Predict the 3D structure of the following.
Amino acid sequence: MRMQAQGMDGRKKGASSHWLAILGNANQNRGFSISVDDAGRCIVAGSSAGGLFPVSVFRLTPGGQLLWSNTLPPTIGSSEGDVSVVANPAGSANLVSGNFLSGAVGFFASISQAGDIQVQRNTDQSGNGARFLSCAVAKTGSTYAAGQLLIFSPFQCRSSVVKYTTSGGVDWARLFEYGGGNSPQYFNGVSLDADENSYVCGVEFGLVAKLNSAGAVQFQKQITGSFNAKDVAASPSGRFYVVGEEQSAAAVIVCFDPSGSQQWSRSLGGGVFNAVAVDASGDVYACGTQGSALCLAKYSSSGRLLWQRTVSGGGGSEGNGVAVSGNNVYFTGKVSTNADDFLVGKVPADGSKTGTVGALQYSVSAFADAAWAYSETSSSLATTTVTPNNATPTYTPTPFALTNSVGDL
């Protein structure tokens, strides 16, 4: 479905360099993940909830204009952040999602540039269930899905990484075994370096791990204390960054070298970082929420805070996804207008612009930036290679209507 974008003042807009966009309908909408292809088109995955929580995917032009918007059946819906999308250079995209609404499976799909599903799989462990929360795509075309595989007898939640081939087959699947119990043990971030090593982070115990392309664990460690890891981004060299929160007391970013040794760690304000991206020069962009505003921060590779911004107004906003391409940074989340609407932005990576777009203000912020001290322990969780079920469903995307208001910064 193709729709013409309009400015927040009601006037139609052409392509602009930098912009903020609100996309909404009568449902409760929220963007969780964003990615950009080589042509500057961004694709966003989230949920548009009219009861249950179906996965919603839409693509925008470089100027923020809506190209198409599709929703997938609620049986593969999303809950709190259970959907991730990565754009390939030519414009296609790979998406993973999972839930416990119906079927309890991890869903993998390859989506064409036009929004059609090319490959799709439902994956679970021995019929017991699964969910995926993050994905990364290698230059070879393999997709790495991170999340959780379940075992019900006895009930155990196990953090997992599944590597898919381009045709949707499972190359390998690796479980990290915390033991019994139903505590929230899962990976919610995965990223790849140039050698296709995968870096994952998890909520329970602040687990951080590195696996090679064959699924062998290179190291694992736990960031101790009250840290919840939300996302991870690796540079081509293997230097990687983990973001999250310290029990809702501070947004946190930690830098590691390829061997897992800490290089630096910083905190910002009193919120949370939900997403992180790294550019070709090694600078890092963290996106999250501070109070009732989306926050965006840029750090140098050495940990110096280069700038920080908020998107405020419109009844409040939050940030859940970030991507960087060339000299531009893209983010997504939600803004609370009459209902919760998708919020998407494209801003300059050098921090040179601020401005007002309709009810939204993109402005300089001054949250406290400080070194963050933490301890860590080496981890020796048992890992197991498994062969999960990998069924072939026949879901068909359904177009859904979004009113797209986009304005220039």
Observations:
- The chain has no helices and 36 strands.
- The first strand starts at residue 19 and ends at 24.
